Amino acid sequence: MLPVSLFTVLAAGAIALLLYQIIARKYRYFLSKPVPFVKPTLLLGSSGPILFRRSDSMSWMKAIYNTFPDSRVIGFYSLMKPTYLIRDPDLIKQIAIKDFEYFADHSPELTSTREDDRSSPEDKNLIAQSLFGLRGQKWKDMRSTLSPAFTGSKMRRMFDLVANCGKSMTDFFLSEAEKGHRLEYDMKNVCTRFANDVIASVAFGIPVDSFRNPNNEFYLNGKDMFNFSSPMKIFKIFLMFFVPYKLRKKFNLDFFDNRITDYFMQIIMDTMKQREEKNIVQHDMIQMLMMARRGSLKHAKNEEDVKDAGFATVEESSIGKTENSRVWTKHELVAQCFLFFVAGLDTVSTVMSFLVYELTINPDIQQRLYEEVLETDQNLDGKPLTYEILQKMQYMDMVVSEGLRLWPPNVMSDRYCVKNYELDCGPGKKFIIEKGTTVWFPTAPIHHNPQYYPNPMKFDPERFSVENRSQIKPEIYLPFGIGPRNCIGSRLALMEIKSGVYHLLRKFSLEPTEKTQIPLRLAKHLMAVQAEKGVWVELKPRQ
């Protein structure tokens, strides 16, 4: 009979060997596919550079994209999950639009959801219940329910709330200048506070002033939500890609802490209750959600879905324009409001801060944009800025569109294969993408590909002039995604960014300081696109 200690060693060795075989089998997936693939590292797949912070997320994505520059599709491993990177824009268009029914969902690892569309309406995981996390028919119903809330006519009603936040921000800086303070700031912090106040006002229906009250609870909870720097949070995210849904739910594994989601959920529920009891009506997103629950939020008759918010606006598909009669619980609608905060806060602040950086180091572009701002302000003759007037600012739209190209807030977007799909990549390269497999669309690498954008790292708004924009096809310009599952809030995001930049330039010139990192480098961050040393700029009041 073997000693217990030796038996234990042999058993442990057998288990380790079995686990190795299981993992190794996963890493043999692409051997049977006619596509080149990035050689994986055990357990880490192709994700080691960002997990151990040897690379920023944008450089990591570009490195994978450029590994096989002549291939339309390449394979890599997101940890242990085989993933297709779709390099060819025509294939992206085919998968995201023409064959959308095969790729209708987001990956369950990114959404903490089941791999089907069954979920409890009272699931505490707000992301799982949000438009981003919902799957199948339930997603289609929620998309068509929310779509009328993001049309141009609804944005016009909300515009004053957004513009007031921009004016409040610049008034604060002017008051600081009058006190003799030097207005040198990390613009990521500034833009986050601005976006925070806009979301609080537009999506939650509450007034928040994060400049005069920098430690307000709403802002601090939002800031904590996006802090993924702690080892525990990194480990938690790591587990999300390994642990099955049932275990994730049992151990309450989620990207966001319950304390934070409970805080925002309570704000929304209290606001809805107060409005119902006192019959309060406001032109904000909470009002839209209350209308949606009553079934009275509809597309206006004869309302055209045009790019009235600028070139980057994505169009709504037929799914979003379909009427449905599903009855939503209050909890399900609260999840949508939470998503507006999650999706809007970091996205808007990231794009806006990088845009301010580019205007700072390109004074000729800043001057031209300021002249358009000044002309617009003079034509208003003391009247407040309106949504319609903002959309007529042609050079503003060119500048913002180029900012979204050069600094897309998301380096990629994903789609999840819901049924076996045959992909034809050319002679001898027809193969099956199996149900349960994820594909990625590499946004940043496509935006930075000289084949599509000559001298791609140059900030050049002329790419989006009236004469040139016809050369830019939707499948090579993806700041808000592509197809029916694109970003529903593109109009709102563009309205925020343009309004914020308008108010800043109207009162201040943007100047580099000794803290301004030129050229700017990205932080080696696990998820976010952030500047390595911040985006430091001095605001100088205009005479």
The tally of beta strands, per DSSP, is 9
Structural class: alpha+beta
Strand fraction band? Answer: 5-15%
Can you write the helix and strand succession as a string? HHHEEHHHHHEHHHHHHHHHHEEEEHHEE
Quick check: average pLDDT?
Answer: 88
Cα end-to-end separation: 93 Å
Instruction: Please state the overall shape, judged from the principal axes of the Cα atoms.
Output: globular
Strand arrangement in the largest pleated sheet:
1-2-7-4
Low-confidence stretches: none
Could you explain the architecture of this structure?
There is one protein chain. The protein is α+β, with helices and mostly antiparallel strands and 543 residues long. It is built from 20 helices and 9 strands. The strands form 3 sheets. It has a 4-stranded mixed sheet with strand order 1-2-7-4. Strand 5 and strand 6 form a beta hairpin. It starts with a helix and ends with a strand.
Helix-strand layout with pairing:
Elements: H1 4-26, H2 48-51, H3 57-65, E1 73-78, E2 81-86, H4 89-98, H5 108-111, H6 126-129, H7 136-146, H8 152-178, E3 184-186, H9 187-202, H10 217-225, H11 231-240, H12 245-250, H13 258-278, H14 285-294, H15 330-361, H16 363-380, H17 387-391, H18 394-406, E4 413-416, E5 421-424, E6 430-433, E7 438-441, H19 443-447, H20 490-507, E8 508-511, E9 536-541
Parallel strand pairs: 2-7
Antiparallel strand pairs: 1-2, 3-9, 4-7, 5-6, 8-9
Helix pairs in contact: 8-9, 8-20, 9-15, 13-15, 14-15, 15-16, 15-18, 15-20
